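User: What would this chain look like folded?
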Amino acid sequence: METKLIPDWAYRMNCAVTVADAHCNIIYMNELSRQTFAKRGGAELIGHNLMDYHNERSRQIIARLLAEGGSNSYTIEKEGLRKMIFQSAWRDDDGNVAGLVELSMVIPDEMPHYIR
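Assistant: Here's the prediction, encoded as structure tokens.
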């Protein structure tokens, strides 16, 4: 199932990619995602439920994204690294929300912003 959903190039992207299905079960983690969550089990998290690892506020956001679609973006600082987090619903061939994808990328302390 994993290879059908995710192209090969995603596995070694320079950002963490984590994908869950509509029931919040983790179905894919690329190499960096597995490294990022190594203390929690890394690749062993595949098959586990996202809700088991999030607080109530985060659970509400996850539920909203699954119910309505859309996305959620924010920045964090963790272990001395600033990160941009982008979470988005993904859809099946019929256009129904089929789950969530999260991209987590390290960003510099100072980052240029352009208006184009």
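Residues 42 and 82 are 21 Å apart (CA to CA). If you want, I can go into more detail on any region.
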